[in-house]
Specification:
globular; 8 strands; alpha/beta; binds pyridoxal-5'-phosphate; single chain; 243 residues
């Protein structure tokens, strides 16, 4: 039976192995623990085991955890889709937002970021696999959006984020990750963050230049099935016992 500490050690080992194979320093890569659907107690345990960065998709659930755990030194990342009428609590309670794909949302986040907090860190979400029904700006439109977002006063544009279409083999997983890296390098400004890589493709993502990986299942076990687009129905075999 794996404990959270063992799972963290395994994920860190995967990150380190991939980093070394790409001649990168593993300390350049931030592990974001995706705690959506997990109770606050799971976040507390992960914090005790050394994690500080947590990613949440569902606003109401996230706000409850942020409030309950306010005494812990945590960095909170909003990684879900953003509705324009929900920007204020995001601007007030998070440190990072990874899913910005429209200027309207960015403007609202900038206007609503409280003056006493530092600028809100932003990654633009790119629809790197060009899936018709998925969120994200298309690669050819990223530069224009990045230029506009970089000019907003209460935001700090940090980089790009993507959720590539699922793929069976390693080379097909790698292609969109490489494309996101190239997209970052093609921008008119220098940015330091590539948010890509989840439980199944974090090795490829690190090899292709990820600086933040967003990992849920490999740390906390399988989630209950939801309609979350980033949670395809479980097709792989569980590797651990669940109670
Ligand atoms: C759920 C989610 C993840 C984590 O996915 P796992 O496969 O459980 O590691 C990462 N990023 C986003 C945007 C998510 O919604």
């Amino acid at each position: 039976m794996s404990t959270i500490a063992e799972n963290i050690a395994n994920v860190r080992e995967r990150i380190a192995r991939s980093a070394v194979s790409a001649a990168r320093d593993p300390s350049e890569i931030t592990l974001i623990a995706v705690s959506k659907t997990r109770p606050a107690s799971a976040v507390r345990d992960a914090c005790a085991a050394g994690l500080r960065d947590f990613g949440e998709n569902y606003l109401q659930e996230a706000l409850e955890k942020i409030e309950a755990l306010s005494e812990l030194p945590l960095t909170w990342h909003f990684i879900g889709p953003i509705q324009s009428n929900k920007t204020r609590p995001i601007a007030e309670h998070f440190d990072w937002v990874h899913g910005v794909d429209r200027l309207k949302i960015a403007k609202r986040l900038s206007e609503q970021r409280p003056a006493e907090l530092g600028p809100l860190n932003i990654c633009l979400q790119v629809n790197i696999s060009r899936e018709p029904s998925k969120s994200g700006v298309l690669p050819e439109d990223v530069a224009e959006l990045a230029t506009a977002v970089a000019a907003l006063p209460r935001l700090k544009l940090r980089g790009l984020m993507a959720i590539p279409a699922p793929a069976e083999d390693s080379e097909s997983r790698r292609q969109p990750l490489r494309a996101l890296h190239e997209c970052l390098q093609s921008l008119p400004m220098q940015l330091d963050t590539l948010s890509m890589g989840m439980s199944d493709d974090l090795g490829e993502a690190v090899q292709e230049g990820a600086t933040m990986v967003r990992v849920g299942t490999a740390l906390f076990g399988q989630r209950e099935k939801t309609d979350d687009p980033a949670t395809p129905p479980a097709t792989h075999t569980k590797t651990e016992d669940t109670p």
